[in-house]
Amino acid sequence: MTGFIDVHTHLHDSRIINDVPDIVLRAKNAGVKKIATCATMQENFERTAELSEKFSGVLPCFGIHPWFLDTLSPNWEDNLAQWLEKIPSGVGETGLDFMDKGADRDLQLGVFKTHLALACDLNRPINIHVRKAWDAILKILKHHGPLAAGGVIHSYSGSADLIPLLEKFNLHISFSGSVTRPNAKKVVQALGAVSLDRIVFETDTPDIVPQFILDAHPDKTPLNEPANVPQIVRVAAQRKCMDFQTLARHGYENSLVLFGSVLNSKAEHK
Ligand SMILES: [Zn+2]
Questions:
Q1: How far, in Å, is the centroid of ligand 1 from the Cα of 204?
Q2: Which domains does the chain carry?
Q3: pLDDT value at residue 209
């Protein structure tokens, strides 16, 4: 058994921050060897950096989430670049979210392009959030060209036919607890379309609680954690009609490729 990597979490989240030592231990016991944790705004950069220093299997990403652009400080670009240069890390969570009709789309586009440029300049993978903004992201990618250090579309919610296009830009496609929903028709179609050398898995801890956890705790609202990755892969394998071990191995190896530059510089940084 090779193991698992959770490519997208938020361990800095105030709902779980005090439980992180136990969460990391449970993940390890479940075979989850690495956990990528994404900051979402400048305010949680320091906490994210501390988590990666404290826990050797935690890989940090620094970025400003499209939901939190009202937190941008005047010098946010320099500040982000400084954290990325100081700590072996990926870029993110960043991206485009056009679900809310009132969102400032031009601001989102500008901020995302800055993240993309930093990822390119510093040769770092990028952890991308996309909701209802597929035309916009493809336009940016076409203009930019394939990402030298790669990246991932987290908790993929787009259509199956976009996947081959996204893969051409050196992007991995990540599946979360959303594959475990009984009505996950669109996600299951996407699972069928993704290449075996591009698929990766995540929890988006503490959110997107998988169905098997919700069903086991009908009386409360549990939180998600990286220890749930193996079970998410198991459900994905059933829904993709393939062998669990084979899918798990691909997910693990792909994640090592995705975070290769971060893992190498983290090893040197020690
Ligand atoms: Zn997230």
A1: 5
A2: 4-269 (3.20.20.140)
A3: 95
Distance 180 CA to ligand 1 centre (A): 18
Residue 270: per-residue pLDDT = 64
Euclidean distance between CA atoms 114 and 69, whole angstroms: 13
For 179-217, b/e burial (b = at least 16 CB within 10 A) is bbeeebeebbebbebbeeebbbbbbbbbebbbbebeeee
The sign of the CA dihedral 235, 236, 239, 243 is: negative
Distance CA 178, CA 196 (A): 19
For each successive 10 residues of the chain (270 residues), what is the average pLDDT? 93 97 98 98 98 97 97 97 97 97 95 98 97 98 96 97 98 97 94 97 97 91 96 96 97 97 84
Q: How far is the CA of 92 from the centre of ligand 1 (A)?
A: 9
- pTM over 0.85? The answer is yes
How many angstroms separate the alpha carbon of residue 208 from the centre of ligand 1?
9
Rounded Cα gap, residues 31 and 16, in angstroms: 20
CA of 91 to the centre of ligand 1 (A): 12
How many angstroms is it from 36 CA to the middle of ligand 1?
A: 10
The 8-class DSSP code of residue 243 comes to -
Cα(93) to centroid(ligand 1), Å? 6
What pLDDT, on a 0 to 100 scale, did the predictor assign at position 17?
97
